Amino acid sequence: QVQLVESGGGLVQAGGSLRLSCAASGSIVSIRVMEWYRQAPGKQRELVASITSGGTTIYADSVKGRFTISRDNAKNTVYLQMNSLKSEDTAVYYCRMEVRTSIATMNEYQYWGQGTQVTVSS
User: CA-CA distance, 47 to 91, in Å (whole number)?
Assistant: First the structure.
């Protein structure tokens, strides 16, 4: 079993910054993809940023140039540095990881964090 624990959310004024963290623990062989999603009230959950084990990153157009995703493989942790925050960035942010949990198989399983609230006041 794998657990993801997020931290770093909170209330910030528009133009400010926050750094989210998501640490994975448990039965982990490797983590191929680490991602951040967000869900605003009344809206669908959307992909914010993604990073592979090779370092390839993808960003939603709405956050390009403002958010940076990074990972620390030794700590099984993904980060999301959020700068120049806007009121429309207000949402619950979730991390998601694709995890290989056994050396006996190449199967990967997805896991989600519990979510952390980010509120940007204008």
Answer: 12
